[in-house]
Design a protein that fits this description.
Layout: H1 3-16, H2 22-34, H3 38-44, H4 51-65, H5 70-74, E1 76-79, E2 82-85, H6 98-107, E3 114-118, H7 124-133, E4 137-142, H8 145-156, H9 159-165, H10 177-184, E5 185-189, H11 196-203, E6 208-213, H12 228-233, H13 247-255, E7 260-269, H14 275-284, E8 287-294, E9 300-307
Parallel strand pairs: 3-4, 3-6, 4-5, 6-7
Antiparallel strand pairs: 1-2, 7-9, 8-9
Helix pairs in contact: 1-2, 1-4, 2-4, 6-7, 13-14
Amino acid sequence: MRLRELCQEGRRRLEACGIEEAELDSRLLLCGALHMDTGAYLAHMEDDALPEVTALYERYLSERERRRPLQYILGYTEFMGLRFRVDERVLIPRQDTELLCELVLSEHKDRDCSLLDLCTGSGAIAVSLALLGGYSRVTATDISEPALELARENLRLDLEERDLKAAPRTGADSVSATACIKQDISFVCGDLFGPVREAMRAQGIEAYDIIVSNPPYIREQELGELEPEVRLFEPRNALWGSEDGLIFYRRIASEAGSYMRAGGRLYLEIGFDQGREVSELLRKHGFINVSVHRDYSGHDRVVSAEAGL
């Protein structure tokens, strides 16, 4: 059987399972089995499929048929132009979250910034901002030690290659920003701000210039309505945001100011219908210049605010 025919058969199987992007998923899974990108696959699609490729593709299709997420099957996802390993220990980074990173990068050009990422999960936000923004001191926390193990692995994996492609240069010395990142990004385990004071002392941080977070925000009653890929496979503690979805925003709004310099900026990803409530929480706790930013679909996605005096 030719690769093209194998891919077509995979599409038919995934369509029968009700998977909306069956054609794309079947092709990406086959590319994964081939260890090729899409361009290479298209150049070889009339080649005969080797038995070992067919066997691996069959395994991938079987996993996808039971609605295991494509990213977990392949073992990685793309975020901010970088590749991150993912598995069931962490929430899969979404393209929507890139808006938060883009806002931070556009509003903070100074590399001499300290940044705190709460609920870091895979480390996608923290690592992306460290690499692309070159921020000098980054702290990332999560309550899950298994998640942090993967985040640390994402920092290590192919860091030299990422440095060449993405990290900013000073021009004076090509000694890698990699070395700086290894020294100045710290992953610490604990509940939100619980481990932060100790991390600040270790990194010589008096107050953060930037705090970011994509906390769990799914309402209790909505958990059962999620797509099978999310409901059955992604970690519940990365999704559940209490009965009204706001428990973590309340805690962040009430505590964040104690860890920020006056004028520092806070960036929170939110659910599409939580902009007003999260904005009110921040104003209640002394934040000013509160703004709600919409994603490319026109939905409220990020709330940003400035720490008051």
